[in-house]
Amino acid sequence: MKLTFLGTGTSVGVPTIGCSCKVCRSNDPHDKRLRCSAMVETDHTRLLIDTGPDFRQQMLAQEFRKIDAVLLTHIHYDHVGGIDDLRPFCQFGEINVYADNDTCDGLMHTVPYCFAEKRYPGVPAIHLNRLTHYRLLQVNELQVVPFVVYHGRKPITAFRIGPLAYITDMKTIEESEFAFLQNVDTLVVNALRFYPTHHAHQDVADAVAFAQRVGARQTWLIHSCHDIGLHEEVNRLLPQNIQLAYDGQVVELP
After folding, report:
1. Do residues 97 and 129 make contact, with C-beta atoms less than 8 angstroms apart?
2. Helix, strand, or coil here: 21?
3. Residue 45 forms beta bridges with which residues?
4. Which of 159, 185, 162, 222 minimizes the C-alpha distance to 6?
5. Secondary element (H or E) of residue 144
6. What is the band of 119 on the pLDDT scale with cuts at 50, 70, 90?
7. How far apart are CA 155 and CA 82, in angstroms?
8. Is pLDDT above 90 for 117?
9. Whose CA is closest to 70, among 56, 93, 50, 90?
10. What is the mean pLDDT of residues 240-251?
11. Could you report the per-residue pLDDT of 146-170, keeping only the tens digit for each?
12. Which of 112, 131, 153, 206 could form a disulfide with 98 if both were Cys (CB 3.0 to 4.6 A apart)?
């Protein structure tokens, strides 16, 4: 099983339009961050986590093959804005999209043509599934358990996929949710920047403390903005088992 980071940036991406900071001017490809999305693959199964507005660009760099399921964390545009770009993959058949009630309702409002009774030709063939938190979701040989974290006051969905836990846009987590993080090998979690703190996102110190509590073998930090600093410099400041991920990075999972 492997994990591919399709995008590791925050809602406006890096470089940020109109900014001339050293990160936005960097020529290091590790400092170029599209909006957050990831892909989990085996020889037989492909899962996507979020389809942001950069989804088309991200998938042009990937092998064209069937998508078995799309897992959505929440309805914010930087995580679902590319849902229409699933349409080329519908030649393999209808695509199952799994999301909580709030996200499903939001999609039916923002892209209603995808779910109309009479759809015009070319509309993505999407089967929208309302997931239940904590209930096991089986996608071929992969077992997915959705659980809850808080994006400010907003409850959103995190995913445990075998040895992997994927969490984005978290500020806090209730004590009961740590049950779903036991024996995690690879943790992916958001870290917006070092400072100032944000009302709805973890900063780096929050993310490091959380990662150390979870105790995964390796933690990768995502959803980072230009304020975090240069990729190479930040990783030198972090523990070896807690590092910034980068766009296009592939991680082999046990």
Report:
1. yes
2. coil
3. none
4. 222
5. strand 142-151
6. confident
7. 22
8. no
9. 50
10. 98
11. 999 999 999 999 999 999 999 999 9
12. 131
What are the structure tokens assigned to 58, written together?
Answer: 């991200």
Buried b / exposed e across 199-238, counting CB within 10 Å, b at 16+? eebbbbebbbebbeebebebbbbbbbbbbbbbbeebbeeb
Q: How open is the CA angle 119-121-127, to the nearest 5 degrees?
A: 50
Task: Decide: helix, strand or coil at residue 166.
Answer: strand
Question: How large is the C-alpha radius of gyration of the chain?
Answer: 17
- Token code pair at residue 203: 């900063």
Lowest mean pLDDT among 7-21, 57-71, 104-118, 125-139: 104-118
Burial letters 72-109, b for 16+ CB under 10 A, else e: bbbbbebbbbbbbbbbebeeeeebbbbbbeebbebbee
Residue with token string 């995964």? 216
Instruction: Please name the residue ranges forming H helices in the chain.
Output: 55-60, 77-80, 101-110, 204-214, 231-237
**Model pLDDT for residues 21-57, shown as the tens digit of each residue:** 999 999 999 999 999 999 999 999 999 999 999 999 9
Q: What's the whole-number average pLDDT of the chain?
A: 97
Q: How far apart are CA 226 and CA 180, in angstroms?
A: 31
